[in-house]
Amino acid sequence: MQLRNLPYIFLGSTKYSGDILESLLQKGCIPKAIFSIPEYFSISYSKTQVRNYNFYDFEALAKQNGIPFYWVDQSTPLQLYADKIREWRLEFMLVAGWYYKIPPSIYALSKLGAFGFHSSLLPKYAGGAPLVWAMINGESKSGVTLFQMQEQMDNGDIIMQESFDIAFSDTIQEVLHKSTQCAIAMSLKLFDKDYCITFTPQNAKQEYYPQRSPSDGEIDLSWDSTRLYNFIRAQSSPYPGAFIKTIDGKKLVIDEAHIQLESSGGGGFNKVLVASFAA
């Protein structure tokens, strides 16, 4: 594959986005600059700082490769870098694992705007934590969409999509790996000299899901075994985990679970959820 040297900047803050950029760097696709968000940061939907549990140290990667690096948070938004971004005469911005809304005035500074990776087959599972929600809902398929960002969240024209299967035995870590491999292949394809970037409007209304916080991992023991199993595996490592609150107010975190059949007598079987607790 012969790749083009397209001027771009990279915006990311997670291990997912770090793997994408590392693959691009290995192929010589060097961004003009890297922008990232601190591990603990402020955001509109939380009164206190939130933690990025999949944080990736882009500052170290930038230093290793001699690439200009900039932190972004509520006190230093992207708008402060507008003049510098304009000077780079970008073809596009590549965005993955990003938590802040990018203003149209910023992505208008590049020729083709901002291209964002979203871990679902848009318009399904738009919004927050798409892979976690897909697993909670028991989906057997998901994917990755690369799209041209617009003011409305996850509503832009699609550039490319790749799907993958979610096995019933998969944990969120395994599904994240599948999503990452799709995104890496798509990012390299974007720079392929034979690839023509085209834009296809989304053909249906977005299905929006909200962001999730660690407190959303509380288990409801009235659920059936399959729903409990999906809920647990969707929030296992590297995420904080599904949990039960004990009578003394502590959290009992369930790290993994599986469903087994046990004889109910008389030739019948019952589904039993077997759980392992985090250390």
Task: Tell me what you see in this structure.
- The protein is of the alpha/beta class and 279 residues long.
- 24% of the residues lie in helices and 27% in strands.
- It contains 7 helices and 14 strands.
- The chain has helices at 15-26, 58-65, 82-87, 104-107, 130-136, 172-191, 225-233, and strands spanning 8-12, 34-36, 40-41, 50-51, 69-71, 92-96, 114-118, 126-127, 141-148, 158-165, 208-209, 242-245, 251-265, 268-277.
- It has a 7-stranded mixed beta sheet with strand order 5-2-1-6-7-9-10.
- Strand 13 (251-265) and strand 14 form a beta hairpin.
- The chain starts with 7 loop residues before the first strand and ends with a strand.
- Mean pLDDT is 91; it is low at 266-270.
Which key phrases capture this entry?
279 residues, 7 helices, three-stranded antiparallel sheet, single chain, alpha/beta, seven-stranded mixed sheet
Uncertain runs: 266-270
Strand content: 25-35%
Q: Give the terminus-to-terminus CA distance.
A: 46 Å
Within the largest sheet, what's the order of strands? 5-2-1-6-7-9-10
Tell me which oligomeric state these chains represent.
Answer: single chain
Radius of gyration: 21 Å
Count, helices: 7
What would a concise description of this structure say?
The protein has helices at about 15-25, 60-65, 80-85, 105, 130-135, 170-190, 225-235; strands at about 10, 35, 40, 50, 70, 90-95, 115-120, 125, 140-150, 160-165, 210, 240-245, 250-265, 270-275. The protein is an alpha/beta fold and about 280 residues long.
